[in-house]
Amino acid sequence: MSELKPLFSGRKHWAHRFGTAPVLPMSRAEMEALGWDECDVVLVTGDAYIDHPSFGMAVIGRVLEAHGFRVGIIAQPAWDDPEPFRALGKPALFFGVTAGNMDSMVNRYTADRRVRSNDAYTPGDEGGKRPDRAAIVYSQRCREAFKDVPIVLGGIEASLRRVAHYDYWSEKVRRSILVDAKADLLAFGNAERAVVEIARRAAKGEHPRTMTGIRGTAVLLDAVPDGIATIDLGELDAPPARTPDAVVRLPSYERVAADPALYAHASRTLHAETNPGNARPLVQRHGDKELWLNPPPIPLSTAELDGVYALPFARGPHPAYGGARIPAWEMIRFSVAIMRGCFGGCAFCSITEHEGRIIQSRSEDSILKEIEDIRDKTAGFTGQITDLGGPTANMWRLGCKDKAVERVCRRLSCVYPEICVNLGTDHGPLVQLYRKARALTGVKKITIGSGLRYDLAVRDPAYVKELVTHHVGGYLKIAPEHTEPGPLAKMMKPGIAAYDRFKQMFDRAAREAGKELYLIPYFIAAHPGTTDADMLALALWLKRNGFRLDQVQTFLPSPMSLATAMYHSGLNPLAPIRRSGNEAVFTAKGLKQRRLHKAFLRWHDAENWPLLRETLKRMGRADLIGNGKHHLVPSWQPAGTGTAAVRPRSRPGRRGLATDLP
Fold this sequence. Notes:
By secondary structure, the chain is α/β, with parallel strands linked by helices. A 10-stranded mixed β-sheet has the order 3-1-4-5-8-9-13-12-11-10, with helices on both faces. Strands 21-22-23 form a 3-stranded parallel β-sheet. The protein has a two-stranded antiparallel ribbon with strand order 2-14.
C-alpha cells in the first residue's frame, strides 16, 4: 500500500486550463459557456444530478475534473432512443455508465416485486424515470449513439453484479453485467483510483478493454494469459489453496446457473477474496470469454478522502431542476458522511461487498469544515446537523490494531461471531468529534441518523452516555433484525442479549439526562434461516416489550450477498460447501408465507389477525388466540378488517432490449 501514488498527485490532463465548472454541464450551452468543444468523459446516471459528495456520479465527475478532464453529465435520459445520449456530443475518451446510487431493480420494485410509485432520486419523487436494469439499457443506447466510444460501467448496480449472480426478479442466475451490457470495462467499489487511471491511460490512446491490471476493475479476455498460475476452485471439495500470487478460478457462469450448490460455493469463494491486503484475482468463464476480476481497490487514506470532500461541489441539485424537491437530497442536505466501509459483514447487506471492510475515515478538520460549509452555504439551515455518520454511525476511526494482521485476515466480519481481539473499539475520538462539532458557532443540535452498531457501543459506556445526552432527537434507530439464534446466525448478527444490554445503558443515560427517549428497533421478516416458529417467538417478544411496528421490511435477495446465496441454493455458504452433508437453510419464498412472516412483525394490525389465527392453529398454538394480555391476537375481528387477500405477484415488465437477455 505504501508504494501507491496519492490520489491527487500526478500531472493533470491538458484540459485543466479550462478551470473548474460551477456545476458539471448537462447541456451543450453549458459546455460552450465553459469554452469546451467536447467532453473528455460523459457520465450517464439513473439519478438526478446532485453536485454533492453523497452522490457517486458527482464524486467521480469532480475527481476527474481535479485531474484536468472535462466531464459532462447525462442524468435520467429517456432510454427508448439513442438521441438523448448524444446531448453532449461524442466524448473524447469514454462513457461512464451507472444506474445510480441504488440498484435499479431494488429502486423500482418492493420485496414482493410490486412496482414502486416513487423514486427518491428523481425530482418530485416521481417513479418510472429509469429503466429496469438501467446500466445495461444505458450502455446499449450509448453504443447506438456512438458506436466506437468505449463504455466503462460503475456504481453499485455494476459492482454487485460483477460476476454471475442470482437475480431475484427473474429468479435465475444471470451473467456478469459486463457481459450483458457489452461494455468494455467495469469498475467496482469506490472507484476514484480506478477511474483516474482509466482516464489517464485512455488519454494516452489505450482502449479500456485492454486495461487488465487496474485494481477494482473487471474486464473480459479471450483467455487467461500464459504463464499465470491458476488455482481451480471450480469444484466442490476443492482444497482452499492459499498460493498468494495465483489467480483463483470460480465455477463458470454456465455451471453456477445450473447447480445451486456450485453457486453457493462460488459465493463463498468470492467473499473470501475481498480483503485488499490478500485478495487474489478471480476468473470466471462466460461462454467463450474469461471474466477477469482484479483484487479490490486499496482504501483511500484519510488525506485522500479529505481531498475528495474538499472538491468544489456546488452542494445541491443542478439548477436545471428549478428547485424541484428531490427526497434523496432533502434527506442528506444537512448531514455529513464521516467515513466509508463497514466491517460488520451482515449476510444480507451489500455495503461490505461494495465499500469494503476496512474503514476509511475523514479527518476531524475535514468534517468540521463541512459542517461550517453547510452552515454558511446551504439554504434552509436552521442550526441542526441531521447526521454525522455513514454506513454505520460508530465505526469512525475503528479498525484492526495490527496492520500486519489486517493484511492477511480472511474473516468475513470483525464482530461476528464475536468481536475480534484485534479490533480497536475505542469511541473516544468520536466523542471528541461530537463535542467539537456541537461547539461550532451556529450549530444548535446534532442528531445521529445512521444506524448504530450497538454491540460495539456497549464496549464504551462513555460513548453511549455522550450519544444519549446530546445526540438523540427523541428516538434512536438500531437494528437487532431478529431475536432468535437461528436467523441471527444466518444474518451474522449478535444475539438479542447485546440489544438488551444496550437498552439498559440507553435508558439509564436518558434518565440521568432527564430526557424521554426511545429506541426504535428494526427487524427483517423472511430472512433465510427463519422459520414460522422463529417469527412467532419474535412477535411474542415484540408484544411483551410493547412494540407496535409501523414500518417493517421483508428480506430482499440483493445481488451478490451471502444471504442471497442461501435463498437461492438452500445451503449455508458460511461453511464450506461439500458434495454431501451441507447445512440446509430454510427460506420463506412463497408470497403467502412471506406475507405471514411480515404479519408476525405487525401482530397488532387487525388486517393480519385472520392469517395469524389460521397459522397459530396449524402450529398447535391456539392458546395464543384470545382476549387476555397473554394472547397474541384476539378471537374477535373488527368489522371491515381482515379482508386483504394475497394479490398475484406482479413480475417486472420487459422494458427494452436489456430485459430480453438471458
